[in-house]
Amino acid sequence: MNLLVTFVIAIVVALFGLAWIAVIIDKMTSPFVSLVVFFPLLFATIWLTWRLSVKFTEPKTTPHA
């Protein structure tokens, strides 16, 4: 459950950042360029947030003596 909550929080925060990046690029250039930038960043963000969520929520192991 912690993994899912961590992932959802991270992806929501990241999507707000991506949306702002897309809006800024849209204002500077064209909507097409904004989409070309947004979609690869979206897929990279989903992959990265999943990897980080798994890493942050993995159980801590203690060495057996």
Fraction of residues in helix: over 70%
Q: What structural category arises from helix and sheet content?
A: mainly alpha
Mean pLDDT: 92
Q: For the terminal residues, how far apart are their CA atoms?
A: 31 Å
Number of domains: 1
Describe the structure.
The chain is an all-alpha fold and 65 residues long. It has one domain. 83% of the residues lie in helices and 0% in strands. The chain is built from 2 helices and no strands. Helix 1 (2-28) runs antiparallel to helix 2 (31-57). The longest helix is centred in the N-terminal third of the chain and has 27 residues, at 2-28. It starts with a helix and ends in an 8-residue tail after the last helix.
Keywords:
65 residues; 2 helices
How do the helices and strands line up, and which of them pair or pack?
Blueprint: H1 2-28, H2 31-57
Helix pairs in contact: 1-2
Give a brief rundown of this model.
The chain is built from two helices and no strands. It is mainly α and 65 residues long. It has one domain.
